[in-house]
Design a protein that fits this description.
There is one protein chain. The chain has 170 residues and is α+β, with helices and mostly antiparallel strands. Helices cover 52% and strands 14% of the residues. It is built from 4 helices and 4 strands; from the N terminus they run H-E-E-H-H-E-E-H. The chain has a 4-stranded antiparallel sheet. Strand 1 and strand 2 form a beta hairpin.
């Protein structure tokens, strides 16, 4: 007989997940730095008939929510981003049992920490992706936001997977 492969747990590969999160933060920060070098603040560059690169600073959250709140939001959103990232790291270290869920957490951590670094460094988040149709523009966003959305989507997808563990009876 042969031994079955051990069940997956993120704890076994914790440092690999951490490194992947750091890689996502680095990609996000490099993309924001590139935009700052190529475009002046508030500048824009047409790429396609429905997509521009822009250079914008967003002091608020997604879709510029709380952008005009007077400054307190910077600190609240920074603390929230750090707390969510630490919480997800703890879950990864304790052992998530599905790769998809572990990767989802990594995406959220990478995105959240990318935006946290912007808030600490600049007081606002650098947004540069502008998708639009005619005169209707989706609020500008960045790769960190994309990583967070991918992570949330993967968590939702993961919630629909079949459960292989038998129900526990008490």
């Amino acid at each position: 007989m042969y031994d079955a492969a051990p069940a997956f747990t993120s704890a076994r590969f914790f440092w690999r997940w951490v490194l992947l999160s750091v890689l996502l933060v680095a990609i996000d920060q490099a993309s924001k730095l590139s935009i700052a070098v190529v475009l002046p603040l508030h500048g824009q560059m047409a790429v396609t008939p429905f997509f521009n690169l822009v250079h914008a600073l967003n002091p608020g959250a997604a879709f510029s929510f709380l952008a005009g709140a007077g400054g307190w939001q910077r600190h609240v959103l920074t603390v929230l981003g750090v707390l969510v990232s630490v919480g997800l790291m703890v879950l990864l270290q304790r052992g998530v049992h599905h790769r998809l869920e572990a990767f989802a957490y990594v995406c959220i951590i990478g995105g959240a920490m990318g935006n946290v670094l912007d808030r600490l460094r600049l007081g606002a988040v650098v947004d540069f992706l502008d998708v639009y149709w005619k005169t209707a523009h989706w609020p500008a966003f960045n790769l960190a936001d994309v990583f967070i959305v991918i992570g949330v989507a993967l968590i939702l997808l993961s919630s629909f997977r079949s459960r292989t563990d038998p129900p526990k009876s008490n």
